Amino acid sequence: MKDAKSCKTIEEVRQEIDRIDREVMELLARRQDYVCEIIRFKKDEESIVAQGRQDQLYQQRREWAEELRLSPEMIEEVYKTMVRHNIQKELELHKQTKNS
Question: Which segments constitute the Chorismate mutase domain (predicted)?
């Protein structure tokens, strides 16, 4: 991995951005594996939505964003989108296990 300041061309910068994006996506795939497994511990739709956990998660991610000098608003938006999709996935899995 190259330090951002050591890149000499726009192509080098883009190449590093692409590499990092791939790493981010690999981490998101790992996270998704856990999302699919957590359903084993959730008994109903209320526990899937888990509004209290969502609120806690968003607040903590905002704090982490500030520590990393990222926009807390952007990070919260990213996580809200991700959590919304995860809840849909969990609801689908819950319905499948309920019907089997």
Answer: 4-94
